[in-house]
Amino acid sequence: MTSALQAPNVHDAEPIPAEARAEIDRLLQSGDLFRYTAPQDAPVALLEREFADLIGARFALAVSSCSAALFLSLKALDLPRDARVLIPAFTFAAVPSAVLHAECRPVLCEVGENYRIDMTDFAAKLETCQAVLISHMRGHTSDMDAIMALCNARSIPVIEDAAHSLGTTWNGRNIGTIGRIGCFSFQSYKLVNAGEGGILVTDDAELVARAIIMSGAYEHNWNKHPVLREVFPALQNTLPLYNQRMSNLSAAVIRPQLGHVARRVVDGRANHDHVAARLNRSPWMQVPDKLPAEERAPDSIQFNLEGMDEGERSAFADQAEAMGVKVQIFGLSADNARAFWNWRFIPDLPADLPSTRAMLMRACDVRLPARLTRAECDFIAEALVAAAETVMGQSRAYGT
Questions:
Q1: Which residues of the chain register pLDDT less than 70?
Q2: Which label site among 68, 171, 210, 303 has the fewest CB atoms less than 10 Å from its CB?
Q3: Does some domain include residue 351?
């Protein structure tokens, strides 16, 4: 019998590795938290070098959040004011917010029931856009081959919002390195946790130089970045400073976790696939398949409710919570920041996006951290199945 007392804690992250403590203590003793105090090899600078090597990019810039990375990426592209930036309608509110912050206009394209971009709608709307910002929302990768072919043919730059996709690959290539720029998150619920923080990666020296200055490398602090230094003098005093730097303390928390990424990816994928197999045996739930080119690094699971009306879906979420498993149904959660109709800060928000709306009204989200044991994963899966059967009735489920 499922009991809330047995429910696993899915909210806490893994402990920060012990090897971080000595560096944190050193920083606290010295008070040396600003990334540009040291002449070289500050923790933030070391993190940038190590992350670029991990992901397979030439350059990395660590900043205060993934939102800051997205904003700086858009500004570094030097887009004209009010440039139209195509984004998926299934993402977090911070993504259209970053577009607006960069003085551009978000254009929303439809997303299908598998949580990925509707390529027909994408192609139709691309013609009027000057940039593309792809959110791999909850780690679900859209068809990057098709996206890059369409954008490259029109010389439209692509930014990847890889906040949920550290460790995910597409045809063996790390997500975040396929577009012109990739942006990652170190917020608490991501694979690597610093509470807050972000990083952008690119192979473009001039682009990262612009982002470095705008992130807050005032005067000649850009000398502490190993980028082509002949780029910087021409940019000196020509760009605004937005002061979105990462502190050394955050970098000290992040760096020891990079060595755990590969293990967390393997464990998270195993947990996800184990739970998905159980949910897919229920007539009431369906976990969309990954695309053939995609290898995911999940720390949560998404599934669609089948054969339920809105009242039954709400009852399912309530019943699952009573059994100890919190379920977020994106479209039914009040003021959900992932439901596009709640982005009323967008000046020309579409009246509706019916495909995306239909998906959000039945798509469920459950935390599934890589640290969970198989028994804890079984608890979650069985609670979800039992909640659906309680609401819908076993006779309806099995036709008896």
A1: 1-5, 394-400
A2: 171
A3: yes
Per residue in 8-32, pLDDT (tens digit) is 999 888 899 998 999 999 999 999 9
Token pair in block for residue 17: 């590795």
Q: Give me the amino acid identity at 96.
A: P
How many whole angstroms separate alpha carbon 389 and alpha carbon 243? 52
What does the pLDDT look like over 217-269, one tens digit per residue?
999 999 999 887 778 888 999 999 999 999 999 999 999 999 999 999 999 99
Q: CA 235, CA 213: separation in Å to the nearest integer?
A: 8
**Number of other CB atoms surrounding residue 83 within 10 Å:** 17
- Residues 218 and 237: their CA atoms lie apart, in Å, by 9
User: Could you tell me if residue 5 is inside a domain?
Assistant: no
Distance CA 320, CA 328 (A): 10
> Could you give phi then psi for residue 183, rounded to 5 degrees?
-125, 135
Q: How many domains are there within the chain? A: 2
Give, in degrees to the nearest 5, the angle at Cα 131 between 129 and 136: 115
Closest listed residue to residue 110, CA positions, set 99, 100, 94, 121: 121
Domain that holds residue 251: 19-259
Question: Same structural domain for residues 279 and 153?
Answer: no
Across the beta sheet with 328-329, the strand order is 285-286, 300-305, 363-367, 328-329
Which of 233, 259, 285 is the endpoint of a domain? 259
Q: Token pair for residue 250?
A: 């955050």
Last residue of a domain, one of 259, 289, 306: 259
In the sheet with 105-109, reading across from the earlier edge strand, the strands are 59-63, 198-202, 181-185, 158-161, 131-135, 84-88, 105-109
Element (H, E) at 270: helix 261-279
**DSSP characters for 89-144?**
SSS-THHHHHHHHTT-EEEEE-B-TTSSB-HHHHHHHHTT-SEEEEE-GGG----H
pTM score of the predicted model: 0.94
